[in-house]
Design a protein that fits this description.
Helices cover 51% and strands 18% of the residues. It has nine helices and eleven strands. The strands form three sheets. It has a seven-stranded parallel β-sheet with strand order 3-2-1-4-6-7-11, sandwiched between helices. Strands 5-9 form a two-stranded parallel sheet.
């Protein structure tokens, strides 16, 4: 049966790969971005997740056209690096608006339709950053921790309505849009600039060398969407699969030294 699928952040990277994967299976796919774009494989729409009116109009149009919305995949977001002291209030709020509140806008606008049809899936792209923190990434980490907590709570609220909530947690993804999805604090302190650059370069290197492919993430989401009773969390990657156990069993001082050493933070 054809499903009606909405993918946010679908103009490039993981979102584009996910949208194409569902389209290739014969589903009706809407991919959205805040900027105009075109893809011959699915229907592209302009929608800003930070603009609740834009979101509500888009969801209403999709529902009016098909009388259902089966799957919503929250992928829109970006990664902000920098010391907290150098990160402006504006940068903090913009990160939280897109990564956290933008996702809440999508969920808020989606729920009336899924509750009406008494079915649906809300699939959310989290990351290893939703499970553990690393230096110079505090606001991004806060946005992902917030998402994990939010969805862990509302999945109980939505259970009676047969709405499934899923978190996808890749440890890093090989994508051509990595540079576009990374932002830095604009006024970094002199004594942190070198370390921030090391951190960003390390994350880029790890993403390219150790990250999972976009296709692997898209195929996992496609497989999860077919499950009658999916799990809540799906880590993708060897390391991220062990993070919860590592945090549980490793003494805090040992874990601190390990992370500090891994990300070359000088004393």
């Amino acid at each position: 049966m054809k499903k009606v699928v909405l993918v946010t952040g679908a103009s490039r990277g993981i979102g584009k790969e996910i949208a194409i994967a569902f389209a290739n299976e014969g589903h009706i796919v809407y991919g959205c971005s805040r900027n105009e774009f075109f893809n011959s494989r699915f229907t592209s729409i302009i929608m800003d997740v930070n603009d609740i009116q834009s979101v509500e109009v888009s969801l209403s149009n999709i529902f009016q056209a098909h009388k259902k919305i089966d799957i919503v995949i929250n992928n829109a977001g970006y990664d902000l690096y920098g010391s907290f002291q150098a990160t402006s209030d504006k940068e903090v709020r913009e990160q939280m608006e897109t990564n956290f509140f933008g996702t809440l806008n999508i969920v808020r606008a989606t729920l009336p339709y899924m509750k009406k049809q008494q079915s649906g899936q809300i699939i959310n792209i989290s990351s290893i950053g939703g499970l553990m923190a690393v230096p110079y990434n505090s606001i991004y980490t806060a946005s992902k921790f917030a998402l994990e907590g939010f969805f862990e709570s509302i999945r109980f609220e939505l259970h009676k309505d047969n709405i499934k909530v899923v978190l996808i947690e890749p440890q890093g993804v090989k994508t051509e849009s990595l540079d576009i999805s990374i932002k830095r604090a604009s006024n970094e302190l002199d004594d942190h600039k070198c370390q921030v650059e090391k951190m960003v370069n390390r994350m880029k290197k790890d993403g390219l060398e150790k990250g999972v492919t976009k296709a692997k993430v898209a195929n996992k989401i496609l497989a999860v969407s077919k499950k009658k009773n999916p799990k809540f969390r799906y880590p993708i990657g060897t390391f991220v699969s062990f993070v919860p156990l590592m945090k549980l069993l490793t003494p805090q001082k040992v874990l601190f030294k390990y992370i500090n050493k891994q990300f070359v933070i000088e004393r």
